Amino acid sequence: MSYPSMADASGRTLGAEEIEAVTRVLQSGMLSSVWGTEVRALEREMAEYYGVPHAVACSSGTAALHLAVAAVAPDPGDEIITSPISDFGTVAPILAQNAVPVFADVDPYTGNLDPAAVVATIGPRTRAILGVHLFGAAAELHEVAQAHGIPLIEDCAQSWLTRYRDGRLAGTAGTIGCFSLQQWKHITCGDGGLVITADPALARRMRLFADKGWPRDGARRHESFGLNYRMTELAGAVARAQFAKLPGVLADRRRAARRLVAALADLPGIRLPTDVDSHAWWLFPIVLDPPLSNRAVAEQLAAAGVPARAGYLEQPLHCAPALTETPVYGTSRYPLTVPPADRPPRYGPGAFPVAERLLTETLLVIDWNERYTDDHVDDIARAVRAAVST
Ligand SMILES: Cc1ncc(COP(=O)(O)O)c(C=O)c1O
């Protein structure tokens, strides 16, 4: 059976609306968001949907996280606590601001940061917590962050319209929520990002950082250090058309996920997410109990034609050579050299066993898509049953 894929039109919601959007911008002759109207409209639509006063668009999810990290203003050598299971775009902005990524271990079933492990990791130089809502499951870190008075940046790249236990939208309980519009996300404009916040000072700082510190109030002056992370009008117009489709994308992904959860509920040896209607189902994760092995099961699923993989990442971020081996700037490993000898950053194999075990032994991810029919889901259910039972 062939599966819709986000790598082509079969698994994307790109259609007449996006074609009209691109045409509208091209015909206007204005492709830059500094003077155009599309990106500013996208920001208003995002802020309104999420019920927050401020949204700032930018050029990628990594850029969104960079705006957020820059806005919480770590001093060089300050620490930001984050998850070992995420895209490298989660840690790159920490390094880019000369701060130190400090990891904590994760929950064995969701792969999200374990709040108790985060608390144990807080130190005198902790400047922020950067939590990731992995695969679309809410990482409930806002209470811990609030209790310790530490800003919380929420990486919502995989969690459009995820809801916390209390029903609020993920991205709205922390200090800043960061979103991605990259090709493989729920909605896409190729590459793009958005940040949301309730804090006007942070919003202003992020807008300036995305535009070379230039306030665009008439004078050509640069108030603060910043880069060019602007979203183009072409991307913004496509993103607006996609954003209008987001509730439908989530409803369809949840419908298909509900069917698979029901079909596999009685199967021993596997753990499924339980929060079908608050999960965003970027991927469909399954955690296997031993002696089942994620590699063996993934191989069988792949042989059956199901788009599934073991582990999500080849190695957790705390084992990435970018952190364990290679220079960061020039020949120097600064800022990773800043932490004192009695508090070295914990990088390399063995540092976070729960995360490592998930990736190497227990976690299986199945590509998920709003275009899956009941037949696709039933095919996956059959293949998982067969693979787990042999
Ligand atoms: C959890 C997470 N964080 C950050 C990113 C970085 O986003 P982008 O690829 O848009 O820069 C991604 C996706 O690629 C992601 O999945």
What order do the helices and strands come in, and which of them pair?
Blueprint: H1 16-28, H2 38-50, E1 54-58, H3 61-72, E2 79-82, H4 92-96, E3 100-103, H5 115-121, E4 126-132, H6 142-148, E5 152-155, E6 176-180, E7 193-197, H7 200-209, H8 233-264, E8 270-271, E9 283-288, H9 294-303, E10 308-310, H10 321-324, H11 353-362, E11 363-367, H12 374-389
Parallel strand pairs: 2-3, 2-4, 4-5, 5-6
Antiparallel strand pairs: 1-7, 6-7, 8-9, 9-11, 10-11
Helix pairs in contact: 1-8, 2-8, 3-7, 8-12, 9-12
The chain binds pyridoxal-5'-phosphate.
How many β-strand stretches? 11
Count of DSSP helices?
Answer: 12
By oligomeric state, this entry counts as single chain
Mean pLDDT: 97
Largest sheet: 7 strands, mixed
**Structural class of the helix and strand makeup?**
alpha/beta
Helix content: 25-40%
**What ions, cofactors and ligands are bound?**
pyridoxal-5'-phosphate
Strand content: 5-15%
What gap, in angstroms, lies between the N and C termini?
22 Å
Report low-confidence residues grouped into runs of 5 or more. Answer: none
